[in-house]
Amino acid sequence: MFREDRTLISIKKKQQDVLGFLEANKIGFEEKDIAANEENRKWMRENVPENSRPATGYPLPPQIFNESQYRGDYDAFFEARENNAVYAFLGLTAPPGSKEAEVQAKQQA
Where is the signal peptide (predicted)? Predict the structure, then answer.
């Protein structure tokens, strides 16, 4: 298998992980196809902050935004999920009764 093929498989797996989480938690989202749509690809490249771009090349998907506000890449999403902080990562309020809401309540107490 070529390195490029492994990269594409890794990207697809990460995208499925993010989409699966959003769907399972009934978080509304709009998926933007950057492979088939040059305008979406250009928008993503222009809106990933300079300090979040790789040293060479372009940022790889998935890149996560809340409307036009950049929230992070897959690694940041994964870390937020591991720390029960995905809603905060996404710029959303955690629903009452969720693990994240419980963690936030304990931190505020």
Answer: none
